[in-house]
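In the design runs reported in the main text, the only information available to the sequence generator was the tokenized backbone. The following block is the verbatim input for one such run; it is reproduced so that readers can re-run the procedure and compare outputs position by position.
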């Protein structure tokens, strides 16, 4: 189950417990859960689609050159 579905389920369950927990407790809890839902990072990466380009390259002599340089000089 995704994080979004878990949060929505938690809100629904809290609503059913209003008589037991009281309005103040349920309202505060639901407000916190709704803030989490509103955050941009709430949608997990597995639910996002992005078009990406990946380049794999093998540079001739790179390993030998990299071994001779200081780490600060080797930047990718």
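Verbatim output:
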């Amino acid at each position: 189950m995704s994080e979004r579905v878990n949060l929505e389920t938690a809100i629904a369950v809290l609503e059913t417990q209003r008589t037991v927990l009281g309005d103040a407790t349920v309202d505060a809890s639901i407000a916190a859960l709704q803030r989490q839902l509103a955050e941009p990072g709430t949608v997990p990466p597995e639910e996002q689609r992005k078009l990406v380009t990946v380049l794999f390259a093998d540079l001739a002599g790179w390993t030998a050159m990299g071994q001779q340089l200081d780490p600060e000089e080797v930047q990718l």
